[in-house]
Design goal:
- There is one protein chain.
- With 398 residues, the protein is an alpha/beta fold.
- The protein has one domain: Alpha-Beta Barrel (TIM Barrel), CATH 3.20.20.
- 39% of the residues lie in helices and 13% in strands.
- It is built from 15 helices and 11 strands.
- The chain has an 8-stranded parallel barrel, surrounded by 4 helices. A two-stranded antiparallel ribbon has the order 2-6.
- Helix 14 links the parallel strand 9 and strand 10.
- The chain starts with a helix and ends in a 9-residue tail after the last strand.
- The relative contact order is 0.17.
- Bound molecules: iron/sulfur cluster.
- Iron/sulfur cluster binds next to loops.
Length: 398
Amino acid sequence: MDFSERIQQYDFDFDGLAARIAAVSAERAAAEIPRALDSVAAGIELDLDDLVVLLSPAADSHLEAMARAAEHLTRKRFGRVIQMYAPMYLSNYCHSTCTYCGFSFGNKIKRLTLSVSDAVKEARLLHDAGIRHLLLLTGEDYKETPIDYLAEVCGILSGLDGAASGGDDRESESADARPFSFSSISLEVYPLKEDEYRLLRSRGMDGLAVYQETYDPRRYAEVHLGGMKKRMQYRLDCPDRAGRAGMRKIAVGALLGLSNPAADAAYTALHARHLMKQYWQSQVSLSLPRMRFAEGVNEIPNVTDREYVRYLFAMRLFLPDAGLNLSTRESPALRDRLATLCVTHMSAGSRTEPGGYSGADSTEQFSVEDHRSIAQVSAMLEANRIEPVFVDWSPVLK
Ligand code: SF4
């Protein structure tokens, strides 16, 4: 059963769920949150009613208790480690029109698609900085970045086609020609068919990230004005197709601020739980990025830090075994704090434009807030007695 069917069990009524969350009273929160935290401590799975209360504004008075429970659960399930990764944009060409994104089709920006050899050079810089988990991104342009191109890049960077060198001249003796490969390659590109995921899986891709942006059908239609991304259900079932194709890692998420953030967080959690139950062989993680300024994006809905951490704590309590990703969209201070409480995966030193690590002239997807280098973020984690992990998976096991 795909998520678009499963969601019917929850009366797919986005506005209704948003209203249920908003209506939770202080009395109900005071009665039910301690009980939910006791259930979590006893290893009992929380249900949708619990999630509604934890996400509600009334839960704000219980934030400290939620933080302590989330921290305890995270350390118990994941230990004192954070998995490090870095995004690498292959292209900012896009045929979709999304009102919240700098790459949107109509935007007059500097577009660039990396050649395969330039992608290898760019990846080399991240490898030299210690990154072994790479997230490759493109816009939604099926012609500019076709599946053959993605397969070739994955094959080289995963080492399947022999370890990559620094560029075209693989026989060179220069330092840049030293062979290298990544232990994990995830893709955040356009939605694909199941057999296409199987093909990419066979070429070294082992993770998929696909964010629904919003689970609110009305807002989805309002912010996706053109291109393939208008097809909400095709995107909604994309992680199921990847799960059936045997993807080792699947990440889902919502862009908070596009619609009611608490309801979007709730549907993201339900989506992640569905995937965890349906595809037991895949590691499921989720992310709740907040909107950022970008080309053509001049207004950012206000999702406060306090609300934001409440949503993340609720995710951890509802899904004790799910990974929680936190990107450089967030401020250093907030990232440092959340790293000690509930997050399991962090990016660092990120660039959001193709060729950004090599200084290419192209436009970014959005501005980041945490500009620290990979080494600086690693040092912060170590100062908090958290080990930054760069390799948790051997390619020999793929
Ligand atoms: S969000 Fe994705 S599909 Fe939409 S404009 Fe940006 S890159 Fe294209």
